[in-house]
Amino acid sequence: MALDQLKDFLKKMESDPVLKEEVLAKCTADDVARVALKLGFEFSGDELLRMSGKKVGRVTVTKTELPGEYH
Fold first, then answer.
1. Which of 12, 48, 50, 56 has a 20 to 30 A CA-CA distance from 19?
2. What is the pairing mode between strands 55-56 and 59-60?
3. Is pTM, for the whole model, over 0.90?
4. pLDDT per residue over 1-50, tens digit each?
5. Phi and psi angles of residue 68, each rounded to the nearest 5 degrees, phi first
6. Domain housing 25
């Protein structure tokens, strides 16, 4: 289940400072999902965005507005 994969990835990120830096350097949720996929965690950027505002362990998922982004 993708939600479980996403939560497991966030827990791994919480304990891995190198992974955390890599994730924070990404611009989009899809970019983060691709990083996770390389590590064997499968979820979509859209699923990650739906977690915005929620906390898993010590990690809070926050959607960042990009300059020039239109709504």
1. 50
2. antiparallel
3. no
4. 789 999 999 999 999 999 999 999 988 899 999 999 999 999 999 999 99
5. 85, 0
6. 2-54
